[in-house]
């Protein structure tokens, strides 16, 4: 009887037949009743469970809740029905430096044993400060020191190079607090906003030479006036319709005389000669055990006469079977006879009729047992 293997939830995992082993339903070999070589796969199942299927690649046929130890990354994972999830609490597996990066997530709390002295600072080029102290960070980032309520020191600003780095305007409030600053003043070198002084008028320039006379313009050409068109005269009125003439009515003609009767027509042609009353299709000897056939036409009865005469072949009984039919040997009749001094006392024969419904083939045959002669007699006719 087959084993029906179910999981903890009562669901069928596999049906294992007698004398067979199933290695495709799960990653363990499921052994059926009377399986001859069960020892090796059964012991391997124990080893796989002990080591949690430890290997570099995931098991091929996992089931819900199955554990797998990745021997390359040293990470334990569990199968959730659709994929493998690494176990997050693996503090006893080693240091964080050897953990799978995608399997380590820090969401809060503190990390004990971590001090400034044993942490390598993140470089400025990588987005860090490059220092383990606030002073080192300010130096590396070029930020002045900050104590109390204000900053001390000077910002180190590099304005060398192209002007692309100086695209913003300096607010006027930064220059003497913007006092007297307006659209008509400028910032002077002595630190004040002042109105600009107009410069002296320059000397008048010399008169320019008279220009040459321009060429005469082209003679203008007026457009021709439009051609006048007179209006078409109105159509005259339509003439009146003439009066309808009177309708003439002739008298009815007299009835014609009755015609003379025609002469009698000639006799029709003589019809074709009809079929003869009987057509012999076969008349002669036939060999026993051989099927014979003739063509027959629809609607005309077919008469078959079969007869067999012979000498007994050494026993006190004989039998003769006649077979016939339209399209195939569908009819049979067997005669069981006796013999006197090895001669058949009554020759078996058959006389019957069939009528084909369509043009077809008529078959007939004689079979015999315990007779010496191998020929019979047949006559087939159609009326």
Description of the structure:
This protein has helices spanning 39-50, 134-141; strands spanning 3-6, 12-16, 21-22, 30-31, 67-70, 75-79, 84-86, 146-147, 150-151, 185-187, 193-195, 279-287, 292-296, 302-307, 317-326, 331-340, 343-344, 349-354, 360-369, 375-382. The radius of gyration is 65 Å and the shape is flat. The mean pLDDT is 78. 9% of the residues are buried. It contains 2 helices and 20 strands. The chain has 383 residues and is mainly beta. Strand 16 and strand 17 (343-344) form a beta hairpin. The strands form 7 sheets. The protein has a 5-stranded antiparallel sheet with strand order 13-19-15-16-17, with no helix packed on it. Strands 12-20-14-18 form a 4-stranded antiparallel sheet, with no helix packed on it. Among the domains are: 1-50, no CATH class; 52-94, no CATH class; 120-144, no CATH class; 279-382, Jelly Rolls (Sandwich), CATH 2.60.120. Helix content is 5%, strand content 26%.
State the main characteristics.
single chain; 383 residues; mainly beta; five-stranded antiparallel β-sheet; four-stranded antiparallel β-sheet
